[in-house]
């Protein structure tokens, strides 16, 4: 009897489509563990093709003072059509560690990339009035270079809003930055409305760590940067960035997420595919909401 019910339970688990998707998403994130960012470009392109998209690779001359001139590659997909665009973005590059090896770069930021691809798959089925441009940036870790180069090459004339994702590997709490200028207020408001509507735990940060969003807000575009973390970590991070001297955190305390990103600790053990799925669904809903609001 016990054996039979265990077997029945196991059969149910195997049959569960949610679990199959989780395994899939986990494998997709793990595929980004590569010895170079060039190899990561190939992974982005392959995953987009496998999802039925026809990505283009836009090369640029990047690099910074430390690296010297270095070619970079942004990977781009468009969905639908319209005179105005909403951009959904995440960087796929990983940092080089002090010992010369590459960080696995999964929490930062392969999990976001896979989440954005999931969002793209959802958005492809929607009737939207904006063209959606998915951009997976290179060289964020060298100083937002892929994003800056994209803006320099294309301009922002037709860009109505930008949604960026950085650090979305685990946890059920969505983080959003509120420091991208007055032009971005309607984007953060759309995020807040969605959080309320979905009863999603969200935390807004008056000060939020920089990602490619800063390249866009510096150029005047409306933009929000999103991420995911566990609830405690999200609040500790809020206090670390926004709590001032009297933030109540222990002397020298560093939130867990900052101990693991840009280190050898940013590994698949940290990644929860449920967060990747949640991020994908939520990002798609944010874009859909912005599309509707901007079309009124
Ligand atoms: Zn990052």
Automatic annotation (TrEMBL):
Look up and give the organism this protein is from.
Answer: Brevundimonas denitrificans
Highest taxon, organism lineage: Bacteria
Q: Which Pfam families match?
A: Peptidase_M28
- Output the Gene Ontology terms for molecular function: aminopeptidase activity
Which InterPro entries does this entry report, sorted A to Z?
Answer: M28_fam, Peptidase_M28
**What sequence ranges are listed for the domain Peptidase M28?**
74-286
Q: Keywords in UniProt for this one?
A: Aminopeptidase, Hydrolase, Protease, Signal
Q: Any idea what this protein is called? A: Aminopeptidase
The residue range of the signal peptide is 1-20
